[in-house]
Amino acid sequence: MTVLSVASELYPLIKTGGLADVAGALPAALAEQGIAVRSLLPGYPAVLRQMQDAEPVLDLGTIFGGLARLLAGRAAGLDLFVIEAPHLYGREGNPYAGPDGDWPDNPQRFAALAQVAARIGQGALPGFRPDIVHAHDWQAGLVPAYLHYSGAPRPGTVFTVHNLAFQGQCDASLLAELGLPGEAWSIHGVEYYGAIGFLKAGLKLADRITTVSPTYAAEIRTEEGGMGLAGLLRDRAAELSGILNGIDTAVWNPANDPNLPSPFSVADLRARENSRRALRDHFGLQDDPEALTVGVVSRLSWQKGMDALLAAMPALIDLNMRLVVLGTGDRAIENGLEAAAGMHPGRIGLHLGYDEGLAHLIQGGADALLVPSRFEPCGLTQLCALRYGAVPVVARVGGLADTVIDANEMAVAAGCATGVQFAAATPDALVAALRRLASLWRDRAAWTLIQSNAMHSDVSWNRPAAHYATLYREILSGR
């Protein structure tokens, strides 16, 4: 079976979030299931620089005001198709925005991605006609639409929602320019509250929909969690699956991680002390090995519950904890964290921005990893924390609820707890969770068992890839 994966970013070539990690890791996992994946990606400068043996395989003609062609090659061990269209993608930095905000031609840029995917899906490339086209998030949301309205034989389609909050809408006047027929302008097509909805199109017109955890799949069918799309998702509940993400356990492996001062494993946790010490040194924390260090690797936003963290800061300090934060986001939250770090030198460390190596060190050196999200489709940082023995402390939402077993009294007694859950991203709930964490830290036997359970958790792509393989086969058998 062959699959064309369509995404706007892909790790390690270009990344702004978890979508890139999934798009980058899933092809190798699917290969173990006997499924060959080629990934289609826009030709951003960062991507083109990393292409190996790239060769043009299709002249795409003029697309939205400029010439384009399709390249085939490899990068980072992945088989790629890349759209070379400098007028659309020849921009350094963030793939979606420039200094003044979102690129105004994003509708055209990502409609072009979807149009090329549809052409490949319909056999434009000799020798490659995919059985399934798997489109990811709003940037690829028009792929099922172009295939649906073409009227020609088409492959099966899967549309994966990584975050329902980002929906990709543009003005209705662009319908014809984007190459969509008049019949697409309908609640049964791409129309969404008077605009063209890229995400809505994928949800409505794909053969099957997936999202990245079972709990999130349930949450988005509620009015509270559906963000205007709950009715559509309830209508398509039979075609909707929640499949947990995994992480690349070759990249995230404390036994051979070059970002750590020394390797460690669940069989030898004493060596983890070197990472704890290195983390304290990096952030200039007081060198107290008995003080519990809490890490945060996150977008600094309301969705991620970072305002609740700011409100809970006095309690964290009173509990003699240390805090290290890596991330960027809302300026008000950044300011609050900078002020807290200034008030508590040696207790709070802050790195505004993102650094992949530092993210690894935080996972390897923090005692606990805090994820207080208000909603979280899956979350990857808590999976990394499990792998590295940083006990995850998570809000009971989405994939966080599905991946962390709460250290309540019965779970601790049964020896199966892997972290701490709390009800919601409110300051009071977070403070209560931090107090529970402090109590567990004092009971070192219980802590060591929780840490060991966490590190034994299967956070790989093995099970998710098997679920995707089953889904693909179901689509083909039903066509």
Written description of the protein model:
The protein is an alpha/beta fold and 479 residues long. The protein folds into 2 domains: 2-246 and 462-477, 3-Layer(aba) Sandwich (Rossmann fold), CATH 3.40.50.2000; 269-456, Glycogen Phosphorylase B (Rossmann fold), CATH 3.40.50. It is 38% helix and 21% strand. The protein is built from 18 helices and 20 strands. The strands form 4 sheets. Strands 3-4-5-2-1-8-9-13-14 form a 9-stranded mixed beta sheet, sandwiched between helices. It has a 6-stranded parallel beta sheet with strand order 17-16-15-18-19-20, with helices on both faces. Helix 4 crosses helix 5 and helix 13 (381-388) packs across helix 17 (444-456). The model has no long low-confidence stretch (mean pLDDT 97).
Summarize this, please?
The chain is an alpha/beta fold. It is built from 18 helices and 20 strands.
As a percent range, the share of helical residues equals 25-40%
Please tell me what the overall shape is. Answer: globular
Q: Please report the total strand number as a whole number.
A: 20
First and last CA, distance: 14 Å
For the biggest sheet, the summary is: 9 strands, mixed
The CATH architecture classification of the largest domain is 3-Layer(aba) Sandwich
How many DSSP helices?
18
Strand order, sheet with most strands? 3-4-5-2-1-8-9-13-14
What radius of gyration results from the CA coordinates? 23 Å
CATH fold name of the largest domain, please? Rossmann fold
CATH class of the largest domain equals Alpha Beta
Structural class: alpha/beta
Q: How many structural domains does the protein architecture include?
A: 2
Low-pLDDT runs of 5+ residues are: none
CATH superfamily descriptor of the largest domain: Glycogen Phosphorylase B
Strand content: 15-25%
On the 0 to 100 scale, the average pLDDT is 97
Enzyme class: transferase
Domain Glycosyl transferase family: 287-447
Keywords: Glycogen biosynthesis, Glycosyltransferase, Transferase
EC number: 2.4.1.21
